[in-house]
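Table S2 (text version). Query chain:
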Amino acid sequence: MTTPTTSPAAASGKAPKGRAPSSPPPTGRPRGGRSRIRRQLPVSPWLFAAPGLLVAGAFSLYPFLSTVANSFTDRRTLLPGRFVALDNYREMLGDEMFWIGLRNSTLYVLGVVPALVVLPLLLALLVEKQIPGITFFRSAFYTPVVASIVVVGLIWVWLLDERGLVNSVLEVVGAGPVGFLSDQWLLLLSAMTVTVWKGLGYYMIIYLAALGNVPRELHEAASVDGAGPVRRFLTVTLPAVRSTMVLVAALSSVAAFKVFSEVYLMAGPGGGPAGEDTTLVMLVQRTGTGLSGRVGYSAAISVVVFAVTVALMLLVLRADRKEDA
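Corresponding structure-token output:
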């Protein structure tokens, strides 16, 4: 009986020359499994985003594309309409009410945006201090934001009516009743006042968040150098919140150009005296609703409103980039 001998190569664990090393024992996982997993991974983020994308597509993208398509037709409320190319846009150029709405919407932006950029910043500086009772004032300033625009509009209509509180006080001091809701320009100015009053608290919160990120060391260093409150505001606070001011300007300009509720509630469906206070969004609502509503023409005005709001956003951002340069 012979005893098998073990070769030195086998004893050292090395395979002899010219022979491939033995493969490791199978682990039960297929060799191509990892590559297949890597190929399947990019699908997972889309599965998580699918519900949100479906909602956005159904309620945002599809209505937008449908509006653009309808703007090239003569569709009405109960009629499908036919393709008319640019006829709606040509008619728009000759429509006096369109130019009145464009004028009023532009004036609204020019009157509201500067106030909503500056006044909330000053209000945020007042309530920024951590003193007893300051939470009450912050809540009071923010209350108009959460109030319904219908309720706010009706309150201001009651205040500014010819028999309202404001005119009653003016009659007592001998100033006589003022036609806040009957004069073309006073009505538009009154609607701007309501918009500014309701938006102060919202933009104040944005400014408070920005002021909280301003380093205290900068204010302390400016104080040591002898800078007063106004000097610190101009040299420290304003540069620190400039990007926030650009954001507020962009948001408020878009909202002001698309104004509807304030003017509608104070001027009525007709848009004030002879319709002179009609805005573009009110014109969209007026021409596109009802059994005989001109949906195609209303969609064309909506496209113009969208284009102008995008242009406003780009204009504000371009001005900010020029200042950075």
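Notes on Table S2: The chain has a mean pLDDT of 84. The chain is about 70% helix and 0% strand.
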